[in-house]
Amino acid sequence: MTPDVKEITDFSAPELDIYARLTENQLLNRHEPEKGIFIAESPKVIERALDAGCVPISFLAERREAEGPGRKLIRRCGNIPVYVAELDVLTKLTGFQLTRGMLCAMYRPPLRSVEEVCSGARRIAVLENVVNPTNVGAIFRSAAALNMDAVLLTPACSNPLYRRAIRVSMGNVFLVPWTFIGGQKPAENAWPEEGMRKLKEMGFQTAAMALSDRSISIDDPRLKEAERLAIVLGTEGDGLARETLADCDYVVKIPMSHGVDSLNVAAASAVAFWEIGRN
User: How much is the pTM?
Assistant: First the structure.
């Protein structure tokens, strides 16, 4: 099948809303999650999404990208619409410089269960209320690079398929298995009560990243010896909830110097993943 290439002439065309006018929450479509959409940006990220089984809806591409390096991706997707224009036209439409040449709208895949995501996993990350998409994307990039087998997110976390999170992760959100604790419509006690119970049932020991009187170092041998270990990382401002700290098997810190007491959650995740992912 050949692609359905369409020259952009009308900025108000409704089929372009997903690229230019719908918010992230509208794309997410919480009321009908099976109809949710995300936007993948750049050929490399689009390729990773396709390799992960995501279903494309349409492309928005700079003409030279569609006729050049991106042509292979477009052909891979059959006869879905491919909207093309020159770079200055696309910049006016999207409101930002389309430096990577290509966007692709795709359907959001169904959320997997915690059990499915964690099947066979030895080292996982749990993100508690991490709301900044940039941090979520950076954590996924580190998780993929530093031997994390899966990522679980609490209900208040930013969605890994927000455009900025995907871009910052360099598409690694499609390489690391992940899901939300509690699913699409989590109960009030999804975290930490139910989530912690489920982790323990699956045989995970839990290590909370926080400063406290009972904190142990990230290189403590007990962490290396754990058969299955979940590293729990907290929100950017307040850190982990007291209930979470009380429920975890360990409280863990990264030793620091020069009077610095903490790192940004994304930076801390990279250090923690490197240390516990080495064995």
Answer: 0.92
